[in-house]
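Check my protein:
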Amino acid sequence: MLVQNSFDIQGKIIAITGGGGVLGSNMASYLASQGAKVAIMDLRAELAIAKAETIAKNGEEAIGLAANVLDQSSLEHALDIIVNRFGKVDALINAAGGNMPGATIGPDSDIFSLSMEAFQKVSELNLNGSVLPSLVFGKHMVAHKAGAIINISSMTAQRAISRVVGYSAAKAAIDNYTKWLACEFALKFGDGLRVNAIAPGFFIGDQNRKLLLHEDGSLTTRGAAIIKQTPMGRFGDANELNGTIHWLLSEAARFVTGIVVPIDGGFSAYSGI
């Protein structure tokens, strides 16, 4: 049965890992503005709490709490707090992730300079840090026979982009895991459970700002190469992720599962010629 406004997410309880970061924080603000109740989780509890307090000042509902996406007991504790506050969890956004220097290959280095320790840490954060929350929160959703999970992929999963070898490998695994878990949930637990991902193109954040922009705001060599490959000719704005996220969380996407949606200004479609 179709609802009158299938895009309405008012009252949905949405948990966001990495909610203290640039993208996760922006998602939280947007979803709260649409009437959702948001639970902002971050390893840095102070960031999550501060964001929740800012949202609450607008008369919207949010809580901020500490959660380590690589620690099952931490996630289970966070889930208990959210359920005690809101009664259940309708959706999970796995926005925690990141990169580190040792898992990248600099312009004056090659693959043999790769730190396997750093590679493993980046893989754990970006892959395991989405798998474990999906298991903890997914089990809760299975018990309620309804729920949506959104993972965060990347253009680095789809194309061979220089330097970011560890991050690329982990995000490629996210693509496969998203499809796998979508099938697992639907086949074994019913059509009320959905798993999808978004694949952002290039957005300016704290971790990549110096790689893409000079201090005066002009493009670096790498930034210029990315813009040349992006038909829309610019970097994305964090707000431009929200429409797709809204759709994937809503009843309008009730028959959508196992997909990875590029939000990239045409980067993945363009051959460069």
About this structure: The chain has a mean pLDDT of 95. DSSP finds nine helices and seven strands in the chain. The two ends are 46 Å apart (CA to CA). Strands lie at 13-17, 37-42, 62-66, 91-94, 147-152, 193-200, 260-263.
